[in-house]
């Protein structure tokens, strides 16, 4: 039997990390967007062997345990200790790892949902398990709870599923442009000096967004956050300015990856495509994902 | 401009009411199912008149303010006081009012989402507004937060959106059979002597379901709850027993309406249809609604 789980990619627009010794109480405040592309996890469970084996593969390539620590930790917790057989967890990512699309959380949450569907449990327990191992292994702080909420989201109270609180913005007809250019280490940024600026600017942005909760405002605040923290500068900032010439809401930086994103009105899609093709940078145009993550038997 | 919101019908399987002076802290514990049919709210906003007018219609028929107290209360709060124009709220219900399908909450939440989409706000504020007026006017305690969660849900912490907590069960391939036979006044049941039995049996059922969180277990516990509280008896209980002869999970009573519901495996749908047609009772077979309520511009 093959189980499939889908978890949307999640882009953070701005954020305030909230660390805590209890990983379920750690999380982030901020805002972001869930995308119609993301992470697909396929789970295959076969009995009949004498031992309990768990295998993980990224994009079709088996990876070692220490290259998939979060997924293995989730699986160790959710596959019963007395189970004997082969558990294969195949994760496919629509965007590259480390580029700020929440792949780590997508893999963790998709794995937790698929395993719980197969071995028992509930959505909340699965989601909390994914969040805990994300936090413990510094995969991320707010992606899991944001992915569960869908849509354009505001994390108004920090914490994992069941503790944190996520609100959603109303919006109309926006497509999401993403320009994924490279990696940025979440861990290095959070351990660096920029963290103070992130906390100050992120808190201000959240307060302003809650006073005027609209996606247009979110993009203005995201861009201010990105520039004022110094995370968006140099060539990436120049690229954002080029892009802004043909769209009505400011583009901003993917937190945290070397890349940009923007909300496009339908009539702006062509112009944005043209300028990015001219500049020869990779890009994609996707929808906002409005629902909850999906899990079920795969009969593809 | 026409805005449409859809909110799934919600059937409660068993429950424990939790009253509180603060309506946002009032709510219920329990479990239930969200359906692919429910309440559609169409909102039309026209400016150009000199006064602020709010009109509500049920199934195409305009209703007076005192027949739609909850919807009017929600609208009074969410339509800005300085707005001048005509606000028309057209609510269409797939199931009859008062039969235990959460129509009251569906109308309140659909109205709140459509008005917030149109006039500004966030999902959480809209949902809290709907919940507050539901509680104040005794429309219901747990429907709004259950409808926001979708799927087969367990209310594990009582309270409105942002305060209460809802978990979801994993399940495969179930259809939902509903047999709507008549009204039952939530208010009369909650004000009566049966409330003590409801609290005792509902708490036990929740504890047992959390120990074995599966939809099959939920139906067994729902039936025990319905019989032990004395709410399910007489002809309705006889009908449930007839139905049980052709399906594998026990049917149970819609809380609170004069009606039954059951989870059907795909191969059981025909047998259930046949027996109910023979018995000449009204019924419908629908899907579990997995997503979040929907709101957007209507271009039907």
Automatic annotation (TrEMBL), chains A, B:
GO terms for molecular function: ATP binding; kinase activity. Pathway: Cofactor biosynthesis; coenzyme A biosynthesis. It catalyses: (R)-pantoate + ATP = (R)-4-phosphopantoate + ADP + H(+). Keywords: ATP-binding, Coenzyme A biosynthesis, Kinase, Nucleotide-binding, Transferase. It comes from the Archaea. It holds the Pfam family GHMP_kinases_N. Residues 87-151 form the GHMP kinase N-terminal domain. GO terms for biological process: coenzyme A biosynthetic process. Its EC number is 2.7.1.169. Belongs to the GHMP kinase family. PoK subfamily. Phosphorylates (R)-pantoate to form (R)-4-phosphopantoate in the CoA biosynthesis pathway. This is Pantoate kinase. The lineage of its organism: Archaea, Methanobacteriati, Methanobacteriota, Thermococci, Thermococcales.
């Amino acid at each position: 039997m093959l189980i499939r789980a889908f978890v949307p990619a999640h882009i953070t627009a701005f954020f305030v990390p909230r660390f805590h010794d209890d990983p379920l109480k750690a999380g982030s405040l901020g805002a972001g967007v869930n995308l119609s592309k993301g992470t697909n996890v396929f789970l295959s469970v076969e009995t009949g062997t004498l031992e309990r084996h768990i295998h993980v593969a990224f994009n079709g390539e088996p990876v070692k345990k220490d290259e998939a620590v979060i997924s293995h930790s989730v699986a160790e917790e959710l596959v019963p200790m007395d189970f004997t057989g082969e558990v294969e967890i195949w994760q496919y990512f629509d965007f590259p790892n480390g580029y700020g699309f929440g792949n780590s959380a997508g893999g963790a949450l998709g794995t937790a949902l698929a395993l719980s569907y197969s071995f028992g449990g509930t959505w909340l327990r699965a989601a909390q398990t994914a969040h805990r191992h994300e936090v413990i292994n510094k995969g991320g702080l707010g992606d899991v709870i944001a992915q569960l909420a869908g849509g354009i989201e505001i994390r108004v109270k920090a914490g994992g599923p069941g503790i944190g609180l996520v609100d959603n913005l109303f919006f109309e007809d926006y497509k999401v442009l993403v320009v994924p250019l490279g990696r940025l280490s979440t861990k290095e940024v959070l351990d660096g000096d920029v963290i103070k600026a992130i906390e100050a600017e992120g808190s201000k942005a959240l307060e302003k967004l809650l006073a005027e909760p609209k996606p247009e405002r979110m993009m203005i605040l995201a861009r201010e956050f990105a520039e004022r923290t110094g995370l968006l500068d140099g060539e990436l900032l120049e690229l954002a300015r080029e892009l802004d010439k043909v769209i009505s809401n400011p583009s901003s930086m993917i937190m945290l990856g070397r890349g940009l994103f923007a909300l496009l009105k339908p009539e702006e899609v062509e112009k944005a495509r043209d300028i990015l093709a001219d500049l020869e940078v990779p890009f994609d145009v996707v929808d906002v994902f409005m629902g909850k993550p999906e899990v079920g038997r795969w009969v593809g």
